[in-house]
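Example record for the data management plan.
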Amino acid sequence: MSHLKELNLFPEDEFNTRLANNVHPSDYNNPEPKPIYDAVVIGGGTAGLVTAAGIAGLGGRVALIERHMMGGDCLNVGCVPSKGVIRAARAAHALKEAADFGITFEGEPKIDFEFAMERMRRLRSNISANDSVSRFSSLGVDVFIGSGEFISRDRISVAGTELKFRKAVIASGASPFVPPIEGIDQVNVLTNETIFNLTELPKKLIVVGGGPIGMEIAQSFARLGSEVTVIEKGVQILGRSDRQASEVLADQLRKEGLDLRLETSLTKFSTENGVSIAHIESGFGTKEIEADAILMSIGRKPNITGMGLDKAGVKTDPHEGVLIDDFFRSTNKNVFAAGDVASSYQFTHAADAMARAVIVNAFYFGRARHSKLIIPWSTYTSPEIAGVGLTLEEAEKQFDHVKQIEIPFTEVDRAILDCETNGFMKVVYGKKGKILGATIVSEHAGNMIGEVVMAMQHNITLGDISAIVHPYPTQGEALKKAGDAYKRTLLSPGTAGILKWIMRRGK
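Corresponding structural encoding:
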């Protein structure tokens, strides 16, 4: 078996070869271990890389263990490849809307799916240099390729070598959950770990699960030419999102031709003449849907098996992963955890934040708390949906005097000019304009949510934001408009009368 096949990388082209050479070189030899490490990190995804690089940069002796590919899900089968495909899909969709801007051309644009996927692989391989074995070795990290397993409370074995540590960090990530549905072994089932290996566009694609990963891929593949059906058992897609935000996206997806089957259960799979068939059931009865490929996107499970965690005194939960306290410590106080293996926030930026906190807490008497992290999220559909903090309903259960301001993008000049008015910004606030949360639905929501996060992190109120000069015309003005709307709520009839009297007296 070739090295690329061992890594589940297809096709065997120059870009996947470059990727493999960076993140799991076939000719790599593990280094001679040091007598004792300040830290041994299991997992070379975002949390593990940030932890290892940070400790090494501060002069620590650190070993990093990775059994598969450096960069983890984000680089290889998550954020990076998905955004490469999303960008190609947006370009295809832009051509369909070109006439709205006075741009016309003869005939239908040709979509070359094979080239779009090759472009993604090329860009992914370029980015992979940042996460490469050679780069981290040059940073002073001892990189070990192999499966790490605790053999005691202060030792880990990898590829026949024992590593003794003062502290250890578990950053082993999570994997897609594939349920044991009847007939699943008979059909072409994909996950985020395999869909980016495709070189041929599925004519008919079924996406099982209406979460962020599923929706991003569903819309992108539809824009690239697939006939897409989404099966979601809940009442809305993006079940954890604001209901109104979910409905805006659902309307857009239906407009683009996606078939959304909500409140629908998948009962079994079968095949007929080589065609995959999904059997579904809803309030409208039963139905059979044909597909060339099926993407399972119904959740993820923490990677906690095969690491000897019980020998280290580390307790786990099948759903929550490694159990940690508010300071990121496991039940073995010298073993910490960060990233998807120990967090309900399964985002790259959350893993990064947890890793930074672990470094401070493990070695510098830090008291960084998991519960104090303000973690935004963004779903990169079109429009994007981003959020942070509490929704109005959640805030009302925790605080008094909670209110919400909503700014539709039909009131934002730049959104009007860009023909991107399909969305809104909601800001939830409490006493004295303290921001408790926000939801943004916009083509640029992911870029816009950062200002809200900064405001929450540094206790910047809506009143303060009203006084911040924003460039015109930008869609980011929506937040300033929310600040202005808040300031107007402070203008009671009595206050207005006093201001009017002062104004006239000043004349």
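Summary line stored alongside the record: The chain has a mean pLDDT of 97.
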